[in-house]
Design goal:
The chain has 169 residues and is an alpha+beta fold. It has four helices and eight strands. Strand 6 and strand 7 form a beta hairpin.
Length: 169
């Protein structure tokens, strides 16, 4: 696994303490300089489609499910790995000292026919909708939100990966 970066969401986290771990997958779906991203109408940010890997799921199976849920799209190609971002935070669970999430990014392709989304409650509350957006626009918008009072927890991670992808183009 190629680690792109590590992000500490809180200060003074002992990453070697008792850790609860979550694995996530994220799709980078590209057409020229445009990316299929999930736009939050409530916050105004862009994020890559994806989410947590359920028990017994492969990365490809999880991405197929997440792309269908968040974008209403059908995964037609599960491509090569770009790398992973590791994030550390304070856990919700009292019996743990560290929450560690590893997000794996993959190049993917989807079909042109989009159906209905199947969003979770918080995703509906955030007004998630799939959009094709120019990578420079997504970076500019996400960058402008860094100093706002409603920064989503994934913003720094997604901004890092957007800039990484732009350098690959």
């Amino acid at each position: 696994m190629h680690i792109l970066t590590e992000i500490h969401r809180a200060e003074r986290i002992n990453i070697h303490s008792k850790t609860i771990h979550r694995t996530a997958v994220r799709a980078v779906i590209q057409r020229g300089r445009d990316l299929l991203m999930v736009y939050s109408a409530n916050v105004g940010d862009y994020k890559f489609p994806g989410g947590g890997v359920d028990d017994g799921e492969s990365h490809g199976q999880a991405l197929r499910r997440e792309i269908r849920e968040e974008c209403g799209a059908r995964l037609v190609e599960f491509g090569r790995s770009i790398g992973a971002v590791i994030e550390y935070n304070i856990p919700v669970e009292a019996e743990y000292d560290v929450f560690k999430m590893t997000s794996h990014y993959y190049f993917c392709q989807v079909s042109d026919d989009f159906g209905a989304q199947k969003l979770d409650g918080y995703e509906k509350d955030l007004g998630f909708k799939p959009v094709w957006v120019n990578i420079d626009e997504a970076i500019s918008v996400n960058q402008s939100l860094l100093n706002s009072d409603k920064i989503p927890e994934w913003l720094k991670r997604e901004l890092f990966v957007l800039n990484y992808i732009r350098r690959l183009m």
